Amino acid sequence: MPKASQTTIPCAQCRQPVRVTIQSLIDAGQDPQAKIGLLSGRLNNAVCPACGTPNAVMAPMMYHDASKELLISFVPMELGLPKDAQEKVIGELMREVTSSLPQGGFKAYLLQPRQALTMQGLIDQVLQADGITPEMMESQRARVRLVEQFLQAPDDLLPGLIQQHDAQIDAQFMQTMTLILQQIMAEGRQAAAQRVAEIQNQIVEQSTFGKQLMAQAQAQEETIQLVADDLNALGEQAGRAEVLGLALSYAGDEQRLQALVGLVRPLMDYQFFQDLTAAIDKASADDRARFEATREALLAFTAMVDQQAQAAVAEAVGLLQEILASSEPDTVIEENVPYLDNTFMQVLTANIQEATRRNDLNASSRLKDVYQRVMSALSANMPPELRFVNELLNAPGPEQARQLIAERAKEFGPGLLEAIDILGQQIQGQGSPAVLEKLAFIRGEIAESLASW
Ligand SMILES: [Zn+2]
Question: What angle do CA 207, 209, 212 make, to 5 degrees?
Fold first, then answer.
């Protein structure tokens, strides 16, 4: 495991004590999060809880990425270490790298680490090995500078600034801004995060690119709604044949076809495509080319949906492994709460089932331990409204739920109905009619209780 230690330093700004985790060995293969931390400047850096100032700790570092045969040492000049002390530190870190290698993992590059003279130099070398050129890095830095310019601008100057930089506001710029927002949220700086989100909204509303984005999103939503209405009109008993008919009626309209795949991917199985081929064979000469194009489009969209699902599963598997490998699982869980989604829970549950089937008691008890930790982190991070709705869903019967609503619904107000609607939409996608029914009952009771208030 990567070597990490904790230290307490006085904040450079307000002198309050700040806890910093210092990591001296970054192994990109074993600990991808540490690489992300390095590239985003969060490594060996802690934000002062009292005043929000970032405090960097200068420490020697060794970066290792076996997949790229990359070993880079960095001893900050600020430490003022004499040459032999530098060599000693580097030697110790190299020994640590080689001692954790798998059998047969030793290669010549491990004998001669590259050197970085500055932190930025280290980051540049890591990025270059990822195929990111100095020009790309420079344009990324320009984007970050522009984001900072927006964040520092007073409200009344913002519209003018957006207009002035309209040409630079593109997908990559928006992505950079989102990354910065995520970073600020991860540091727990709520007020700053709120400000960034507000400015981002203004940029979306006022820039040419943002307006295009909004128009696209709206068109997409309308298309999905139209297709969902068409599906509803087919009735509850609709199956493969009806969906096939609907798909053929969309021939030539890629947007509707894509929305259809997104809504009913599971119905588009092997049999579905066989039936489609049969329909093409029977089609008139006029229709044939259009139907064939429809088949091509449906195949491409289903492949796309499946690929996204696979990528999500791979990410969830990676996160689960990281939690299992960590000596501080709760910290890893806490840092990754946004990724503890449905896919993650499915992967975790499947792993527990598999370990149980194999009779691997050790693995299954460790996985169940992770499950408990994840569930408690999730409920601790849940907004209070959702926690209350969960409590209501778990109530032993309708009477008890009604009682709880009478006692506590007023604490939350109309936000409670919103929380239920969001939860309802999530559950709708999972097909749990019993829960939906319960939720509808709860919603009705709450609405009544709030109205009488
Ligand atoms: Zn401070």
Answer: 110
